[in-house]
Structure formats: C-alpha cells, structure tokens
Hints:
The complex is a heterodimer. By secondary structure, chain A is α/β, with parallel strands linked by helices. In chain A, 37% of the residues lie in helices and 13% in strands. Chain A has 15 helices and 12 strands. In chain A, helix 2 (24-38) runs antiparallel to helix 3 (61-76), helix 9 crosses helix 11 and helix 9 (318-333) packs across helix 12 (383-406). Chain B has helices at residues 5-14, 21-38, 53-56, 75-78, and strands at 82-83, 86-87, 101-102. By secondary structure, chain B is mainly alpha-helical. In chain B, strand 1 and strand 2 (86-87) form a beta hairpin. Chain B has a two-stranded antiparallel sheet. At the A-B interface, helix 9, strand 9, helix 10, helix 11 and helix 12 of A face helix 1, helix 2, helix 3 and strand 3 of B. Strand 9 (344-345) of chain A pairs antiparallel with strand 3 of chain B, so a sheet runs across the interface.
Amino acid sequence: MTRDLLSLPAATLRDRVAAGDASALGVVDRVFERIRATGAGAAGGDRSATHGLNIVLWHDREWSRAEGQAIDDRVIGGEALGALAGVPVMLKDNIATLQLPTTCGSRILEGYVSPYEATAVRRLREAGAVIVGKTNMDEFAMGSSTEHSAYGPTRNPVAPDRVPGGSSGGSAAAVAAGLVPIALGSETGGSVRQPASFCGVTGIKPTYGRVSRYGLVAFASSLDHIGVFGRSVDDAAMGLQAIAGRDVRDATSADVDVPDYRAAFKVSMRGVVIGRPREYFPDSLDERMRDVCDGAIDALRSLGAEVRDVSLPHTNLAIPAYYIIAPAEASSNLARFDGVRYGLRLTGDGLRGMYEATRSRGFGAEVTRRILLGTYVLSAGYYDAYYRKAMQVRTLIARDFRQVFATGVHALVTPTAPTPAFPIGAVSDPYEMYMSDIFTVTANLVGVPAMSVPVGFIDGLPVGAQVISPHFDEFGMLSVAYAIERALGVGARK
Amino acid sequence: MAVSHEDVRHIAALARLGLEPDRVTLLVGELNGILAHMGALAAVDTSTVETDAPSATGSTMRSDDALPIPLARAREDIAPEMRDGFFLVPRLSTHEDGADGHGADEP
Lengths: 494, 107
C-alpha cells in the first residue's frame, strides 16, 4: 500500500518530488483534502467550519496549487531544487505574507494583507516550500491555549475537547493533524514549545537573533522569536535550516554561522553533560510528569551522557518578571493599532474617541488586559518598582544560565510544561493561565535556544521534555533531542 | 500597591482604550490579582544589578541604517488615495470622510 504523502518525513517527501515520484501539485491537493476532512479550516475566510478543529484561518487553494505547479515545472525542466522542494508548510497568522491576510487572530487586523513578506517566509519559498495556509493563534500571540482568538478556539487533534496550547496552537495542531510536516510559529514566552508538548510534536525556539524577526508582527520585541514545528526532530531541523541566518532587515539578527543541523543527528551522547535543574522538578510537579521526563534523562544516561543536578536559583521569579516585561513592551508595540494606519477604524467623538472606539472594539479581553498592565508598570511612579525591577531580575536569571553552562554543562533537560493539555474553558484565571509557561519563559528572557520533544503520555495525552542549550548551540540541542527521540520512539515517525 | 478604579481609568486613557464602567470594575480585580504575584520581585536585592538586556540575550545590535522596504506593490496601490506623492487620510479631527471603514495599509 502506498503511504500517504502527508505522512512522509519532509526529507523523503522532498526527495520523491525531486525524483518525479510525487508531484508538488498533488501534495497541495492532498493538504486541502485533509483540511476539509478534519474540519481544520474553511475556504476563503469562510468561518463556518468552527465546529471542527479550526486550525487554518486563511488559505488560497489556487495560489498554493500554482506554487506547487511551479515546483513540478522545475523538476520537469531539470532545474536545481531547494531543500524543501514541494514540502507543504503552514504559518502562524502573525507572520507577514503577500498572498494571504495577516490578522494576528485579531478583529483589529481583519482583512489586512501585508505589502511585504517576512524574511522567514521568503527563505522557505526560496527553499521550495509551498505555503498552504495561515494558522489560528491567541490574539497577538497573547495566550497559552489558542482560546483567545477572535476567530474561535482551535481544538487539539489528539483530544478535541482540549486546547492545543498556545499561542501558536494552530501551527502545532496543523502538524499533529497531519496537514503539514513543518509549520512556523512564534515565541515570546513558550508559544512554540508548550503547544508542541500539548500536541505531541517537536517545537524549536532558536536563539534570539538566529532567525530574522523581519515580518513578524511585534508583541514584545526583546522576547519575540520565530520558531518551527515538525512532526519529528528531523522535520523541525529542516525547517530551522531554511530560515536561520543573518538578515540585514532585522537589527537584532546575529552574524553567526549556521551549521548543517541534520549532521547533529550523528553526534554520540558519550561524554555529553546534561544538567537536571532542580527548580524545574519542584515537589508540586505531577509525579507522572517527573517520571516521564526523568525517563528521557535516563535514556541519555544509558547512551553515555553524564547527568548532573544543577540549580537555576532565580527560576521562581521568571513568571513575575516576564509578565511585567512582556506587557510593557506590548503596550508600546500595539500603540500603532489606532484606527489610522491599519485595519479596523471606528468613529468616535473626535480623534481621541476614534482611537478609543477602535481599540476597545478591535482588541479582545486578554490583549486589553495586557496593554493596561504594561501601561501601568511603565507609568510614572511605578516604573522603578515594576519594570526596572523586572529587568534587573532578568539579568539575574541570565546570570544563572551563564554560570551553569560555564561549568561544562552542554544542555539542560526539563519538563516543557507542568501539565498535559487541559480541557477547553477549564482555565479562566489569567495568572493560572500564565503559569502554563513556568518552564518556558526563562529561555525567552535569556535568549538561549530551547526545544520540546515528545517523551510520553499522561492519561493518553502527549507531553514533551524541553532541551535548553547555550546561545547559538542549536546543533548541540538538536543532537540531544534526536537522541531522546530515537531512544524513546515517542512522536517520531518510523 | 493595589490598583484602584481611578488607576484603571487613568491607564486606559493613557493607552487610548475606551472602557465601560462594569469593565473597569472587572479589570481592577484582575489586575490586582496579577500584580499580587509580582510582589515576589520586591523581596529580591537588586541594588547592584544592572538591566543589561542586550547582553542578557546574547545579541548585538547593528547600526540603525535605513534600508529600502521591499514592497510587493507600489505605494499608490497600497494607499486608498494619494496626491502629489503624499497619502491622503480622512480628516481625523472631524471625520468628515465619515463612516466606519478601513485605514491605509501602511508598512
């Protein structure tokens, strides 16, 4: 029996397209059949399929078909092909595209089509990837469940009564539902890794500066990253390979060489030093989560790695610091959505009334809450007590990581999230929702690379372990994640 | 430091967000609930700690040179209306151009 094209690893799919054994156009058609079959989205912005998984917000089948046909023409013409030729990819809806809307899951940007393209998208297309849709997300990437979208919640393909995590829940669900082998998301505090854990897929947050943020709609600029989902570590590594590297259009893009990430899979774990930070395994952690993650660490030990208990003593301050810094930056970044320059405009009493009417109707409850929180911590009389203090604590957290890595630890392994996916509507308290990010926000505050790899199940729900490495050592991080994937056989396709 | 109704109305005005009175009451409770958890930061001695965000993230900045924006369409195609090379927008002080609509797609 012929294996479904969409179940193939990205590398195999690319090779079959390049050899003429499969057509890129046929792959695109298969994606849209699967979108329809799973209720993952609706054509042309028709939101009638919200009873389904509600993964895809925007797509243009004919444009994607033309992109696929162009790849097939190159194959027939014997032209050089990129590393992702014919591989279908979806993008989170806060990454700018020319052909599809970019709404950030918000009413305030409904109908907005960017006049320029994100560097990451351009690089994917140059590698031959075919963009097949924009995915649902928490509005402006503010959330941990993809329930805070103006276009309705996304459901977890593994357990449709549960959330897929967030804020990149649509992209994680797209990979988990078998729509695409690779999808892009974005991270400000764990928005790729946490949904990857909830959906049983791999999710990478690269080093800050490794992937250009040009064309990523800003939430909190010092914390924002573009990240990659893959159905396996290999798929995710191929996606990262395509988008990594210096970009003069991003002022914070780093001029650091990009190695061949797939070569990391040949690295032996013998002599590799793994840190197990005790603050990420608190007494309050579910015993089953502890056991599953320790199983991953034990697997690395059995492959020859040395495991050390380490401490990152300021970890308990990460959530308070993050939820001051991120809203502060958001309150500034989202000031541009005022009814004048983008999307929605509502009339009000004079200029100020127009601003207030547009923003209060255009933003949802969570975005409003965070803008107010950010405005408060930056306002006169509170700046030093909140914002300055949080930035100093950020420095202390960064110092923790530097000190641990300076002792010879190559990578840290922790749980990605404290729980598996929770039921839709189960978490209504904002701070309780923020605690979903307790193990992930530190990597955003510090800028180090981190990824989630599936390691097991709790009550039938997938959970991931997080691998954290020093700045720009995605190569080492991938070698550890691949070793875990191979040893445990969870989530990876054989 | 508890947030009052007056504080919420003040920061909403600063943030250009219109809030109904019942929403203000709800937000007072929510913001105080969140800020209560931020109190943990106050107990940390940071008297000798700098706010070195750039080195904390391990990144460096390039010079802030202007680059042309690679627009896929000409400015004339993006703006609803142009005259003599300038964007035309509604008269915001009076809204003479009136009804609900959409702003210019400015990059």
